[in-house]
């Protein structure tokens, strides 16, 4: 499996961020072919170590890195990426990685 993990920085207007994210961005991203699951935090993330305190954490799961890359290169993936400046003005950290069970 492969994951796309997005840590969204604290926005200036959290209510506007959430409104756009859940009503516009999520429906665009959920159209990506090969998307197996899409989860976000429910409630404010707690920082146990370090100083990072994101507003929202999104995890998108795909069968493989190749499937993830194909989804991101698709028109739906490009639309999702193009939508970021519309609500994530505070920035985001995006990580892509393969997973394994240990």
CATH topology: Alpha-Beta Plaits
The assigned CATH architecture is 2-Layer Sandwich
What is the β-strand count?
4
Walk across the major sheet and give the strand order: 2-3-1-4
Euclidean distance between termini CA atoms: 13 Å
Biggest sheet record: 4 strands, antiparallel
Rg of Cα set: 14 Å
Helix content: 25-40%
> Given the C-alpha coordinates, what overall shape results?
globular
Ranges where pLDDT stays below 50 over 5 or more residues in a row are none
Secondary-structure element string: EHEEHHE
Which range does the strand content fall in? 15-25%
What is the total number of structural domains?
Answer: 1
Task: Find the structural class using helix and strand composition.
Answer: alpha+beta
Mean pLDDT: 94
Q: What is the CATH domain class?
A: Alpha Beta
Write up what this structure looks like.
The chain has one domain: Alpha-Beta Plaits. It is built from 3 helices and 4 strands. The chain has helices at residues 14-29, 65-73, 75-83, and strands at residues 2-8, 37-40, 56-62, 92-98. It has a 4-stranded antiparallel β-sheet with strand order 2-3-1-4. The longest helix is centred in the first third of the chain and has 16 residues, at 14-29. The model has no long low-confidence stretch (mean pLDDT 94).
């Amino acid at each position: 499996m492969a994951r796309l993990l997005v840590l969204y920085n604290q926005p200036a207007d959290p209510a506007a961020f959430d409104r756009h994210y859940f009503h516009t961005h999520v429906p665009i991203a959920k159209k990506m072919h090969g998307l197996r699951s899409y989860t976000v935090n429910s409630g404010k993330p707690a920082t146990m170590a370090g100083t990072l305190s994101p507003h929202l954490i999104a995890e998108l799961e795909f069968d493989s890195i190749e499937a993830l890359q194909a989804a991101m290169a698709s028109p739906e993936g490009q639309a999702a990426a193009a939508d970021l400046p519309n609500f994530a003005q505070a920035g985001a950290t995006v990580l892509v990685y393969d997973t394994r069970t240990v």
